[in-house]
Amino acid sequence: MTCTRLTALSFDANDPSDLARFWAAALSWEPLDGTETVGLTPTDGTPFLLLFNPVPEPKQGKSRIHLDLVSETPDHQAEMVARLTTLGASRADIGQGEVPWTVMADPEGNEFCVVVRGEFLATTGLLGGIVFEPAGPTVGRFWSEATGWPVVYDQDGELAVRHPSGQGPFLTFGPPDSEEKRSKNRLHLDIAPPLHGDQAAEVERLIALGARRIDIGQGDVPWVVMADPEGNEFCVLTPW
Asked: DSSP of 182-208, one letter per residue?
């Protein structure tokens, strides 16, 4: 089992500080101290940070990665939607039709869903999941191997993994789709080897699992930019 850790979910943002303030209020997470990086520290046992990286380009198209926030009842769902709206979110129509969840967008247009807790999300906190959609089971199995998070659901073309502790949100994948990925994701995962690990060896391990190195114009940086088997970008950081 790899010791590589999922360290962060990173957002591209035109205004990182403003977007971080929204998500801090939405999740009741704390600002990341002691660093120039704009980020949030979890207060609910989630085993990774949220980071916000400055980019000049606006969001284009529907996100392939989004968050699911969990309400307790339909009435609570309505209350959450109203509260998130006052914080700067808005309802979003992505062609979802009549569904039991509410699709919203944060202040920079990143879609997320407010769902009502069911059996699958029975043990999560407010942040129920990071959802890769569309995505096939192959990419879910890749991320299981990449992070060491075991597969906890695999049915009808959809797959989910979760931290070995059984705490925190799920990473969920699916349903699959033939839709072609057309642009860089606004959200991506960051992983890192442990403190005395080997970044180069980790990159080679991930390539063997089906990832590849990519160039998104990052220049000379200490992290390695890669893409998973379905083209979703991610970064391999230096050991920490």
From this structure: -S--SEEEEEE--TT--HHHHHHHHHH
